[in-house]
Amino acid sequence: MRDVSTSLDMTKKTKVALVQMQCGADPEENFKRAIQFVRDAAKQGAQVVCLPELFRSQYFCQTEEHKNFELAEEIPGRSTTTLGEVARELKIVIIASLFEKRSAGLYHNTATIIGADGNLLGKYRKMHIPDDPLYHEKFYFTPGDLGFQSWKTDRGNLGVLVCWDQWYPEAARLTALRGAEILFYPTAIGWHPKEKREFGKAQHSSWELIQRSHAVANGCYVAAANRVGHETPAGGDGIEFWGQSFICGPDGEIIAKGSIDREEIVSADVDWARVNEHRTHWPFLRDRRVDAYGGLERRLLD
User: Fold this and answer.
1) pLDDT tens track for 243-290
2) Count of structural domains, the chain
3) 171: domain range?
4) Residue 2 pLDDT > 60, yes or no?
5) How far apart are CA 94 and CA 92, in angstroms?
6) Region for residue 73 given its phi and psi (left: phi exceeds 0; alpha: psi -120 to 50; beta: otherwise)
7) Per residue in 124-165, pLDDT tens?
8) Does pLDDT of 80 surpass 80?
9) Residue 144 sits in a domain of what CATH number?
10) What is the pLDDT of residue 234?
């Protein structure tokens, strides 16, 4: 059996890439284009590639519509098999967000982690499910039941969360405590066009800030892959996805960032030595008062 810890010690840097893409009405075309983005990222030297949330379709949660359940698929299934073949060919790790059909009436928003050997290393089911205007995810998704996880690979120790999870410091902390040295967030987030002028700048700033704070608090890298484009699958004003996918270091500083409105591959070299350095110099994990956090499992303290 290969000694993963030894390979990690020898691999001091890993090039990670985020696919920032626009998703159209045809799932098969989206899937085909996503694979081409993955191939392009690999040609640029990427060793880990993360796709945006639910990339196979437009963001269907803008409306509550039963026919959208037809978009769901089993995991493992056709998508993970095809992505596994691509991962094996390119010798890269792929993180892919899919609409999982677990059984009739039971669906999840699930991220899959596919190893460089093509095997499905595992999956993460989105834990926090939003219910906001045009983000009607509670209609579709059962909250995750696999907990917060980390996967040791010869490309690094990877943690994966999904979109709405990015607002919760508990999720980032527990994933880091599982061993993750980089947190990936496949994402589908944007502006309501009527709100953009008044609230848009503050909304985006908050989104970026909270994730950068996870990097600082946990001494790890953070990588958020968002989609771009204006989608109106339910009619009306729709959602204008703001792109700006980014990768930040353990100090919270952004080292790579995408545009607002262009499809592109956002990539950066991850230096694993910086994780050890920041966790040693800024010992937030060491100084946690684990004896005093008993109230965190309660929704409200009296």
Assistant:
1) 999 999 999 999 999 999 999 999 999 999 999 999 999 999 999 999
2) 1
3) 7-297
4) no
5) 6
6) beta
7) 999 999 999 999 999 999 999 999 999 999 999 999 999 999
8) yes
9) 3.60.110.10
10) 83
Kindly report the length of the chain. Answer: 302
From the list 23, 50, 61, 163, the catalytic residue is 163
Can 152 be counted among the known catalytic residues?
no
Q: Say which of 23, 126, 220, 248 is annotated catalytic.
A: 126
Asked if 53 is an active-site residue, the reply is yes
Helix axes 27-43, 78-90, angle to 10 degrees: 20
In a domain, 230, yes or no: yes
CB 151 within 8 A of CB 113: yes
Contacts of 290 (CB under 8 A, 6+ apart): none
**Residue 302 in domain:** no
In a domain? residue 1: no
User: Is residue 2 in some structural domain?
Assistant: no
On the 0-12 / 13-18 / 19+ scale of CB atoms within 10 A, 182 is: buried
Q: How far is CA 284 from CA 145, 158, 288, in A?
A: 28, 20, 6
Residues 6 or more apart from 61 whose CB is under 8 A from it?
134, 135, 136, 137, 139, 140
Over 90: is that where the pLDDT of 9 sits? no
Which one of 53, 100, 231, 240 is the catalytic residue?
53
Give yes or no: 195 in active site.
no
Of 120, 117, 149, 112, the residue nearest 2 (C-alpha): 117
Angle subtended at Cα 242 by Cα 264 and Cα 145, rounded to the nearest 5 degrees: 95
